[in-house]
Amino acid sequence: MKTVHKHILTPHSGDRDIELTAQHHFLGAEFITHCKEIWIWVEVDTDPSAQRTTAKLRIIRSGDAMPNDAEHCGTAIDQYHSEAYHVYCLAS
């Protein structure tokens, strides 16, 4: 079976390590205005014996440089400040 987990990032906090199952799928990102957070949803396997991995998430603003091997996880837009936050998973 599978489930969806939410991970919370803040725009200026730096990289964040999260634990995922080896078979995962990033579903999207959203900027939550009232708490100024970025929420990332990831579909993961619920099998307790599933292989686990650690992923490093980084928020990159439009126009900023990013590593070549980064995987796009989602984009969150702060509509009140005209800012876009692109969330990438860095290769381990």
Topology:
Layout: E1 2-9, E2 16-21, E3 25-32, E4 37-45, E5 52-61, E6 71-78, E7 83-90
Antiparallel strand pairs: 1-4, 2-5, 3-4, 5-7, 6-7
Kindly describe this structure.
Helices cover 0% and strands 62% of the residues. The model has no long low-confidence stretch (mean pLDDT 92). The two termini are 26 Å apart. The protein has 92 residues and is an all-beta fold. The strands form 2 sheets. It has a 4-stranded antiparallel β-sheet with strand order 2-5-7-6, with no helix packed on it. A 3-stranded antiparallel β-sheet has the order 1-4-3, with no helix packed on it. The radius of gyration is 13 Å and the shape is globular.
Q: Could you tell me the mean pLDDT?
A: 92
**Shape label:** globular
> How much helical structure, as a percent, in the residues?
under 10%
| Cα-atom radius of gyration | 13 Å
* Oligomer category: single chain
Work out the strand percent: over 45%
Distance between the termini: 26 Å
Uncertain stretches = none
Largest beta-sheet details: 4 strands, antiparallel
- The number of E-state strands comes to 7
* Element string (H = helix, E = strand): EEEEEEE
Widest β-sheet, arrangement of strands: 2-5-7-6
Q: Structural class given helices, strands, pairing? A: mainly beta
